[in-house]
Fold this sequence. Notes:
- With 145 residues, the chain is of the alpha+beta class.
- Helices cover 66% and strands 12% of the residues.
- The chain is built from seven helices and three strands.
- It has helices spanning 3-6, 8-28, 38-46, 52-59, 63-75, 97-118, 123-141, and strands at residues 49-51, 79-84, 87-95.
- It has a three-stranded antiparallel β-sheet.
- A hairpin with a 2-residue loop joins strand 2 (79-84) and strand 3.
- Helix 3 packs across helix 6 and helix 4 (52-59) crosses helix 5.
Amino acid sequence: MEYKEDLKYLNLIFELSKKIFSLLYSKLEKLNLHPGQPPILLLLLKNNFLSLNEISKKIHVKASTVTVIIKKLEKNKLVKKISKEEDKRVLYVQLTEKGKEISLKTYDIIKNIEEEIINSFTEEERENLKYLFNKIILSLNNIKI
C-alpha cells in the first residue's frame, strides 16, 4: 500500500501547513520577519511586557528557542529587554515603537491570510472547522511524549 493512502489525514495537515508557511513566509519576508517571530510579536502586542518564561509557556516553544528569536528581534530593534524594580534578576521583553508598528502590520497580514482561507466557507463550516481543529489539538495533547 502506498504511504500516502496510509497517512491521508496527516498528509493533508502537512500540505496545509506547508502552504500556509510558504504564504506567510513570502508576506513576512517583506517586513524582514521569519514565521517563528509573529507569535512573539503578537503576544507582546497584547501584553505590555512578558518574561522569557512567560512567552515560552504561552506560545508552547522551548525557552532556548524563544531566547534565539528574541535576540534576532532585539537586533532588529523590534523588542527591548527590561527589568522590573522589584526583581532585577528577571528580564522582561517589551516591543519598541518600531516593534509595535511591525507587529500591527504582521497582524494585518495574518488576519488577511486567515480571511482569504475562510472566505469561501459558510458560517456553519467555519464553526465545524474550529470544532475539528480544537478536537485535533485535544487529541494531540493526550499523546504522551
